[in-house]
Amino acid sequence: MGFTLTEKIIGNHAIGNKAGKHPVHAGDCVWARANGLMMHDVTSTGEIAILKKFFGGRIAKGLKVVVTPDHYVPAKDIASAKLYQELREFVDEQTAKGADISAYMLEGGNYGVCHVMVPEMGHILPGQLWFGADSHTCQYGFLGAFSTGIGSTEGGNVLATGDLWLRVPESIRIEVDGNMPRNVMAKDLFLRVVGDIGVDGANYQAMEWGGGTIRRMSNDERATLTNQAIETGGKSGIIEPDETTRQFLKERLEEVDEGFVDYALESDNLELLRGKFCSSNWRERGLFSDPDAQYARRIPIDASGLEPLVAKPHLPSNVAPARDLQNVKINQAYIAGCTGGKWEDIAAAAEVLKGQKIAKGVRLMVVPATTYIQDRMVREGVYDTLRSAGAIVTMPTCGACLGGHMGILAPGETCISDTNRNFVGRMGSPQAFVYLASPKTVAASALAGNIVGAEK
Questions:
Q1: CA-CA distance, 140 to 72, in Å (whole number)?
Q2: What proportion of the chain, given as a percentage, has pLDDT over 70?
Q3: The whole model's pTM is what?
Q4: Which fold, 34-167?
Q5: How far is CA 211 from CA 6, 75, 82, 157, 261, in A?
């Protein structure tokens, strides 16, 4: 019996496993050695407390830690300012101890939403194992890594030991073929799946995306799919690495600061990052699912039949065609976050908005996920397009996605958003209504003043 990509990665990180001689299958329980841990401003307090109380305050040797405050930045109140202060002091303390820690704080001006920032700065490599005390840590699977969200208690133990006990998840294979219509995006594809299987349809399973459509998909669009795995109850989302993956890593090596170059030089992946690691090499290293791998289920999808979809309140699985919701008036349109604030999300929205004005009475909020994306928006004219259309463009932050600040909703207001969740009270008042859609549909709705699917 063959192995899924998820089984191979976890097996390669299982303690005691040497060169794959101790393979694991779904259902096995293993102690696994992590490559890295992501920390942000909200859940880090518990992790730091565990490290100091039980482990003498020292981070495990060999563990890469990436710190990306994002949920309540810039600080919205005294409580969030204290969270940031604690994390800043932790970074300084651990740096002085020689820990392998990279921090993207506001003081340096290079910061952003964690799940976009971490791969953007080159910290995620195919075949790695990453954890983070945030449910959407599963996003890193778009680069062929196994990544998953954990609790703060688990995060504290990973921080101190570098290890974590976990059960190897079963995998669901979602095979997508056909050409996607121009007016739909990866968000529509995901909404189609979660609408079919429900918010518990992949409980503790790895959602593995494959097929010709996925192979033609960009990295930003792939990241939307892996990010949203948790909305089906999934343990992770993952896509086999290929030439598109290699190109992303090569660009990261060329564009990011010297810190990443040092990180690459210390790893055994420099050849990959230099651009010599093409699709055939992925197979040589076994970073693919075997033809006879066992799946919990297989889901075939013809992408050519997709149309703009929307998740109605108050679940991501409450999906309907946008064309059936044209009577829903909106107060706010929101393009932001780890799911919807990536470069291609914002560029796609700008394409819809170009040369037009948003409807009277509608607030269009655009929040780039990182300062790199923010700079690119200015450099390539996207910022001007958005502002000319009437958008409010802010600095990177998780902000209103989790009801934090800068755009939360009042009672009775309706928002269409390209973020990840529309639970009761998610973006502000429990009496508000949140609809989820692709960046293109959000932009089209902002122009119309009511929910409509994008035409292009």
A1: 22
A2: 92
A3: 0.93
A4: Aconitase; domain 3 (3.30.499)
A5: 17, 43, 47, 37, 33
